[in-house]
Amino acid sequence: MFTTYEKHKGLAGVNLAGLEIHTPEQLQTHAVTAVVLALGSNYHADYYLPDARGKLATFGRMQLSTSFQNPDFTATQEQPKPDYTNQCAYLSLDTAMSLQELQQAFKLIESDCHRQRLTEGQTSIKKVTMDIDILLIQTGLNKNSLSNKSISAKIVEYSEQWIIMADRYPFKAHETAGVEELISKSGLIG
């Protein structure tokens, strides 16, 4: 675990078009101070979305977008599939964690919501109780430099950077709408 992070600026001033895009593999050990998540469920969403949101809220302060009901983009007339309920969440972490730790924690929440990936792959119609995908991460980078007055005194500058997760980009329409709503609400965050 990383140290507690005090300063939260939310998504204020974030311009999606200007953000860097990196693969999760490039960022596994980076200290993450906040995330934007895509939440989705096509099976008992009225139960599993609030359950997952409650579990996520234990990590820090959270702001939610409007929830959207969307058709499964893999559905066809020959093979209809249940609609998804999707929502984006901004989560400012009380304690910075590595991306790898966050991914493991979110998989555990999916599992606690009875997500069964093995049986999903064996059926033509997947029942997804909870899907949590990381769209954006905010990394916190410590920049240490020695003070001019004393060699032992260090000045620590905290630099924040939002990064788009390449495995989720380009975002789906409902993800873009959710992220943009969270950015517009950023004055309410933090």
Automatic annotation (TrEMBL):
GO molecular function: 2-amino-4-hydroxy-6-hydroxymethyldihydropteridine diphosphokinase activity; ATP binding; kinase activity
Keyword list, A-Z: ATP-binding, Folate biosynthesis, Kinase, Nucleotide-binding, Transferase
Record domain 7,8-dihydro-6-hydroxymethylpterin-pyrophosphokinase: where: 36-139
Swiss-Prot/TrEMBL GO biological process terms: folic acid biosynthetic process
Pathway: Cofactor biosynthesis; tetrahydrofolate biosynthesis; 2-amino-4-hydroxy-6-hydroxymethyl-7,8-dihydropteridine diphosphate from 7,8-dihydroneopterin triphosphate: step 4/4
EC number of the protein: 2.7.6.3
A Pfam match: HPPK
Protein name as catalogued: 2-amino-4-hydroxy-6-hydroxymethyldihydropteridine diphosphokinase
Origin species: Psychrobacter halodurans
